[in-house]
């Protein structure tokens, strides 16, 4: 090959290299770069094009913080039945879930708390079973049940003056309870199961803290209510009174936890975290009997002698399970027969119950409702 041919060949290589560089720039090769190596034995043929520096990958957006409530106000009672709630706050389980301001306000009864809740106060409320049903109708769906906090039959008692021995002895007598609470349900079912028409007794509406002194004075002949009031009656009145009956074989009483519907819609993640904290509180209370009873004695002046028996017999499911639906449907149909609820009303379970908070916390605790409305 002569010199002229060699120069023509080298010029062609350089032209090809320039064209490739221009093409790669137009194509945006950038990060991958393009290395071109000369093919001749001339020094110029060994030139290498260095790759362009890699462009930084775009940063992933930070996950959005959940919209949590600044404060949660809970209405309840200072009873060991609600230990899961009180201990969740006392032990810091709500704070572990990012709920830094949970205010728990104690009321004398769930029925009394409901009166404040219905006028717009509070976010969450614990009530007995009958108020949980009545509140949903009264508030036109403005409240939904999110879990069974506690249930039992042996924590409900009919206490009577010592001369009253049977259900028939109550005919014509005065029976105290907090009307509208589970006590009303207990009285009716106990009497019916023993062949007594509930219309044959006079039911007196009293706040729960008044029942013990009223029975001791003889203002009433009996009262039907939950612990610790029956134990207190024994302490105050001695052998003037006795335990006429427990609720076993008659009803299952509940402490339920309910939330305002608008609050659930505004803070779905807050509701899930609240239920997780509640489950932790229940687990702690179950595993620490002495500490739980001491807490109620020190903080709420509930004597261990009164709270201990209730602690030992109660079940704390923190659930919406098959037993829950069966027990509440039985009570709803009774409420209709007793004139407390209208006969044309229906308890639409999927609207009354809000499962999402429990499903988010522990789905095993909240299976789907077995029926849309209560069986007849």
Domains counted in the coordinates: how many?
2
- Through-space gap between termini: 108 Å
Helix vs. strand class: alpha/beta
Described by its quaternary structure, the protein is single chain
Number of strands: 10
Mean pLDDT: 87
Low-confidence stretches: 1-47
SSE topology string: HEHHEHEHEEEHEHEHEEHHHHHHH
Which CATH architecture of the largest domain is right?
Answer: 3-Layer(aba) Sandwich
Helix % is 40-55%
**What proportion of the residues form beta strands (DSSP E)?**
15-25%
CATH homologous superfamily designation of the largest domain: Periplasmic binding protein-like II
Report the top-level CATH class of the largest domain: Alpha Beta
The DSSP helix count reads: 15
- Tell me about the biggest sheet? 5 strands, mixed
How is the CATH topology of the largest domain named? D-Maltodextrin-Binding Protein, domain 2
Shape: globular
Question: Major sheet: order of its strands?
Answer: 2-1-3-10-4
């Amino acid at each position: 090959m002569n010199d002229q041919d060699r120069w023509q060949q080298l010029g062609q290589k350089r032209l090809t290299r320039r064209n490739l560089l221009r093409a790669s720039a137009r194509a945006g090769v950038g990060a991958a770069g393009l290395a071109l190596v000369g093919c001749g034995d001339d020094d110029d043929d060994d030139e290498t094009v260095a790759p362009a520096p890699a462009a930084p990958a775009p940063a992933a957006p930070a996950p959005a913080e959940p919209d949590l409530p600044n404060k949660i106000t809970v209405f309840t009672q200072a009873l060991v039945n609600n230990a899961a709630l009180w201990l969740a706050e006392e032990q810091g389980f709500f704070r572990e879930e990012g709920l830094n301001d949970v205010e728990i306000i104690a009321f004398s009864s769930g029925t009394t708390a409901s009166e404040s809740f219905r006028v717009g106060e509070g976010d969450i409320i614990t009530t007995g079973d009958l108020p949980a049903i009545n509140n949903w109708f009264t508030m036109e769906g403005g409240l939904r049940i999110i879990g069974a906090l506690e249930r039992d039959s042996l924590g409900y008692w009919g206490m009577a003056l010592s001369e009253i021995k049977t259900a028939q002895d109550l005919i014509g007598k005065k029976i105290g309870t907090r009307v509208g609470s589970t006590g009303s349900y207990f009285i009716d079912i106990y009497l019916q199961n023993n062949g007594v028409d509930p219309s044959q007794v006079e039911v007196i509406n009293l706040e729960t803290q008044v029942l013990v002194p009223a029975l001791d004075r003889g203002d009433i002949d009996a009262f039907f209510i939950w612990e610790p009031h029956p134990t207190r009656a024994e302490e105050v009145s001695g052998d003037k009174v006795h335990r006429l009956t427990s609720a076993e074989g008659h009803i299952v009483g509940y402490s339920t936890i309910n939330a305002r519907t608008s609050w659930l819609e505004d803070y779905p993640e807050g509701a899930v975290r609240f239920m997780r904290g509640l489950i932790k509180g229940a687990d702690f209370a179950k595993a620490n009997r002495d500490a739980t009873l001491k807490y109620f004695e020190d903080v709420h002046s509930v004597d261990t002698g009164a709270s201990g028996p209730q602690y030992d017999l109660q079940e704390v499911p923190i659930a919406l399970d098959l037993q829950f639906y069966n027990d509440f449907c039985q009570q709803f149909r009774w409420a209709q027969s007793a004139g407390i609820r209208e006969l044309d009303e229906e308890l639409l379970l999927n609207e009354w119950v809000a499962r999402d908070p429990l499903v988010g916390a522990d789905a095993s605790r909240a299976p789907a409702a077995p029926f849309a409305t209560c069986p007849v």
